[in-house]
Hints:
Blueprint: H1 3-11, E1 16-19, H2 26-33, E2 41-49, E3 52-59, E4 62-64, H3 66-73, E5 79-80, H4 83-90, E6 107-111, E7 118-122, E8 128-133, H5 134-140, E9 144-146, E10 149-151
Parallel strand pairs: 3-6, 6-9
Antiparallel strand pairs: 1-8, 2-3, 2-5, 4-10, 7-8
Amino acid sequence: MNRATAELDELGIEYEVRRHGRVGSLVEAAAARGVEASHLVKTMVVRVAEGNYRLVMVPGDSVISWPKLRELLGVSRMTMAGADEAREVTGYERGTITPFGAPKALEVIVDERVVGETISVGGGEHGMGITISADDLIKAKSATVAAVTEPAY
C-alpha cells in the first residue's frame, strides 16, 4: 500500500491497482494497463502563480488547452510546473502523479470528457496505475469539471 491507495482506502472508494513494468510513452502505459489512451488520464501540475498550483487531469489523447484553462481560472498567464517543482508540490515524480495521497490538498480540474467513465490514473509509483470511476474521483476531490483540452493530434 502506498499513500495513494491509503487515501482511497480511507475514503472507501473502489479501485483496482494495475502494475506493469516501466513504460516509455502514454501509448505503452495504456496498453500495459489494458485501456484506451483516452481512458488513461494524465495528472499535470500547473502553476497559476507563485506557490499556487492546480492538478489538471486530461485524457491521454488530449492536451491542455491553455486558452480554455486560463479562461476557467480567470488568469492571463500560467505555466506547467517543472519536474522538480511538481515533485515538491505533489510528492510524486512525473509519470506517477495522482490526485490521491499528496502531502497537501490541491484543487483538481478534470476535463469533462471523462465524466461517467472508468479511467486509469497514476498510482504514485512507476509501473503502477489505479483504475477508478472518474465520477468517484471527481466527488472525492470536489473537482471542477470543465472543457480544458484539445486533441493531441
